[in-house]
Amino acid sequence: MRSIKLRRSVLAVLTAAATALPMMMTAGTSWAADSEITPDHPGGVAAPHSPDGVPSNGTGPQFHTWPMASQYSHSHLGANPKGANDFTCKPAPGSRPVVLIPGTGEDAFATWSYYAPELKLAGLCVFTFNYNIQTNPDREWAATAGDIRSSAAFLAHYVDKVRAATGAEKVDLVGHSQGGGPLPRAYIKWYGGDRVVNHLIGLVPSNKGTSVYGLATFAGLDRPGSLGAQALQSYADKHNYESLPQQLAGSQFLSELNDGGMTAPGVRYTVISTKYDDVVTPYTNAFIRQPGVTNITMQSVCAKDHTDHFGFTYDPVAFQVVFNALLPDKAKAIHCVYVPGYIQ
Known about the structure:
This protein is of the alpha/beta class and 344 residues long. The chain is built from 12 helices and 8 strands.
């Protein structure tokens, strides 16, 4: 368990620190949707055990903590979360398919082994995917790593696949970290998601990026040409980890994504965060301050909830909030229980 916590601590620091790179690009570099990136040709790196994005290396058990699920995903590459990706599932009247989007450097199983079976049990058609993995060496469990535009274009392809199988006109999206913020919003803005997304629920999303607790400026990561900036750029280029630099607060990618507003007409938005977030800092960078957006801090719902960034998708109280947002007709009073943080 100690080694798992250590890896999580390292990943948290790396995820936050490496998000500095867009600030290091030349002024002429544009992060807006690339005409060469399309849903049919997204340009990212496929996960070998997830053909066309579908985790296909057996079905794993439901876990109730992130460290256990993450450990399992490392030794069972491409494991499918229980209850997910049944392409024969047809949504009940009044409901829509739910697509679960992993966060940066996480695969579908590590992120969603708890949520998928719970949502399936609630009668929903649940889907999730793996794409754009870390390279050199290939690490399938570190998915959603590459250029966010490529991941967003692939999400467009995957949603079309889900809609074709289920017959649904629209879907609901639930995403963690990058998967709850920049990735689905890029899909909505640049790849047609505004026409088919009913509701985006973002869990600790990096909507406005991270300040790395102010360390980006302290270490010179936001100064073009600095040694730190060059080292980070080299790391991202070598390992297909461009999504990390794209998520630094003030990055050119986020500036272009957020230009003109962070929402699209006709799409509902719910953002749920925690004041104990140790990756998206300050935690308020998750929130979208625009009309029609519901922003929720977990501690305003349950003061005993100390969940952090990585543990968020294993927080039973947060799950209740998500359940109520997805199924308002079946909404229940929140049962507040003590939830410890995983990194303190």
